[in-house]
């Protein structure tokens, strides 16, 4: 029974991390940059949920997605687009600056005290097993998002354009693909996924502060690296790996305090053994 519970919890946690990791891996794969402000987009979505939840939970979810996407577009247009072609260090520093800017803005306009929301969807009993309804919804939505994104990238014109830009931006531009538009679409998708993941995190933690998205963002980045940054299936695999690690540690009291340390130790081991991650590919740099 405990094993089944561990599997379900691992899928729930891993699916949430995978949705966040997809934002990292898509932006890196297409724009070749690490958007360290991605975790703070989750924070923006979390605060939006808390503000609109008393009016209507559905309205809160919709408003969260819209607001996160808007912030993602503004950040891409104002902070990242002018640095297209700049050194990776300049982009990295800018991303860190945007992260701190979003945290400070939230603190100024909303306050430093954390905001709470109470959600209880009940439990489902399967014999001796108790399963939280929110956990099942998280798993179902995560799976649906993964399938939809995979089909979008594989079968739509925009998705194929994303793959082309990821493989060779210069060649894609010569073929008539609007690279700036594709990068903007990538930020929109990544921000929407961050908003959806933020909804599940808010409902689970039920407390939002200015650093709400910091640790989930870092763990999702670790998941993207473990799975192979730049690979959509890799982000899913990495998220599930971290999810199962957390589920196992949560069921073993002796390991529970060291969950974060174990996860990042796994990251270091993976990087030492296979620097490109489980499903990552080596890329030849053009000189």
Question: What does the model show?
Answer:
- By secondary structure, the chain is mainly alpha-helical.
- It is 72% helix and 4% strand.
- It contains 11 helices and 4 strands.
- A two-stranded antiparallel sheet has the order 1-4. A two-stranded antiparallel sheet has the order 2-3.
- A hairpin with a 2-residue loop joins strand 2 and strand 3.
- The mean pLDDT is 88.
Strand order of the largest sheet: 1-4
Shape annotation:
globular
Strand residue content? under 5%
Into how many domains do the coordinates divide?
Answer: 1
Rg from C-alpha positions? Answer: 19 Å
Poorly predicted segments: none
Number of helices: 11
| Class by alpha and beta content | mainly alpha
Overall average residue pLDDT: 88
User: Strand count, sense and closure of the main sheet?
Assistant: 2 strands, antiparallel
Distance between the termini: 56 Å
**Approximately how much helix is present in the residues?**
over 70%
Number of strands: 4
What order do the helices and strands follow? HHHHEEEHHHHEHHH
In short:
By secondary structure, the chain is mainly α. 72% of the residues lie in helices and 4% in strands.
Secondary structure elements and pairings:
Elements: H1 2-31, H2 38-52, H3 57-80, H4 88-109, E1 115-116, E2 123-126, E3 129-132, H5 133-155, H6 157-167, H7 169-174, H8 179-205, E4 207-208, H9 214-227, H10 232-251, H11 259-273
């Amino acid at each position: 029974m405990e094993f089944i519970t561990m599997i379900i919890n691992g899928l729930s946690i891993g699916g949430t991390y995978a949705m966040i990791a997809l934002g990292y891996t898509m932006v890196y794969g297409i724009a070749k940059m690490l958007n360290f402000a991605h975790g703070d987009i989750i924070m923006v979505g979390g605060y939006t949920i808390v503000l609109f939840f008393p009016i209507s939970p559905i309205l809160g979810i919709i408003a969260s997605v819209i607001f996160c996407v808007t912030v993602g577009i503004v950040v891409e247009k104002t902070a990242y687009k002018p640095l297209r072609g700049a050194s990776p260090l300049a982009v990295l520093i800018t991303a860190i600056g945007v992260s701190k800017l979003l945290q400070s803005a939230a603190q100024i306009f909303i306050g430093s005290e954390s905001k709470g929301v109470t959600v209880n969807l009940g439990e489902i009993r399967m014999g001796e097993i108790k399963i939280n309804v929110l956990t099942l919804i998280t798993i179902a939505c995560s799976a649906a998002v993964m399938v939809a994104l995979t089909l979008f990238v594989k079968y739509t014109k925009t998705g194929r354009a994303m793959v082309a830009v990821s493989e060779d931006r210069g060649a894609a531009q010569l073929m008539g693909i609007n690279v700036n538009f594709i990068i903007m679409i990538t930020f929109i998708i990544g921000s929407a996924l961050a908003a959806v993941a933020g909804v599940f995190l808010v409902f689970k933690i039920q407390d939002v502060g200015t650093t709400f998205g910091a640790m989930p963002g870092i763990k999702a980045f670790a998941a993207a690296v473990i799975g192979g940054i730049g690979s959509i299936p890799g982000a899913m695999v990495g998220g599930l790996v971290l999810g199962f690690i957390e589920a196992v540690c949560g069921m073993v009291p002796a390991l529970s305090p060291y969950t974060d340390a174990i996860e990042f130790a796994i990251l270091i081991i993976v990087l030492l053994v296979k620097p490109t991650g489980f499903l990552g590919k080596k890329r030849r740099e053009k000189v």
